Recover the amino acids of this structure.
């Protein structure tokens, strides 16, 4: 069965610290997509990244970077030099080919608090 | 361009009332999704439309929940005889037909409180 685990419920850091949010997934499908979304206090889920199961290259976008490792079924997200505006709940999610990629399964989220 | 919009943003209902939640997807997006997010949890899938066809409603928690998208654009999620356990944020998302079809873009949600 498909499952996404975000073991870190809440992380608190001080501005400019680096922080890594963990995501572990389970799937029997060989073709799938992994996602990260940010949910600020306003409530809207903001898309950050999509990665397909055949592309294990790490990705960097500004202060954000993602480490996808199929061997450990993990898709971790690192924020470098965190800022107060990064404070939000971050969700990792999975969609599989056997559902036509039409159903996202989310983890329970990690709340990141960045203090000045 | 405009993103996904939802209305109302907040809804308070007395137990037993019917409610209707509206979603306007991104223009041109073929697929539309509804999710339910309980407090402190991740969103959970409710149902999915491709154009006007409801292709998957496996996540609807009971027959009190009903969704429609009659013209393949705007969608309405209706909850009949609301119960306190229906209190949650209801999120709508849409995705394109091609290219970026695997990525769902979300609206701001409707926060429903059932008293």
């Amino acid at each position: 069965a498909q499952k996404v685990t975000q073991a870190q419920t809440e992380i608190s850091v001080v501005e400019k610290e680096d922080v890594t949010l963990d995501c572990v997934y389970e799937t029997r499908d060989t073709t799938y997509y992994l996602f990260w979304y940010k949910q600020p206090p306003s409530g809207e889920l903001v898309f950050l990244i999509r990665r397909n199961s055949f592309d294990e290259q790490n990705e960097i976008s500004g202060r954000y970077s993602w480490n996808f490792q199929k061997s450990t079924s993990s898709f971790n997200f690192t924020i470098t030099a965190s800022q107060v505006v990064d404070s939000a709940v971050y969700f990792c999610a999975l969609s599989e080919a056997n559902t036509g990629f039409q159903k996202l399964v989310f983890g329970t989220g990690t709340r990141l608090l960045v203090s000045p | 361009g405009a993103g996904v919009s939802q209305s109302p943003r907040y809804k308070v209902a007395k137990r037993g009332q019917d409610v209707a939640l509206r979603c306007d997807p991104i223009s041109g997006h073929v697929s539309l999704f509804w999710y339910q997010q309980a407090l402190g949890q991740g969103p959970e899938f409710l149902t999915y439309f491709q154009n006007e066809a409801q292709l998957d409603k496996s996540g609807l928690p009971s027959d009190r929940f009903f969704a429609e998208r009659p013209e393949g654009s705007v969608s309405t999620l209706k909850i009949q005889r609301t119960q306190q356990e229906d209190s949650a944020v209801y999120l709508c998302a849409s995705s394109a037909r091609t290219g970026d079809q695997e990525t769902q873009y979300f609206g701001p949600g409707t926060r429903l409180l059932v008293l």
Summary: Chain A has a mean pLDDT of 94.
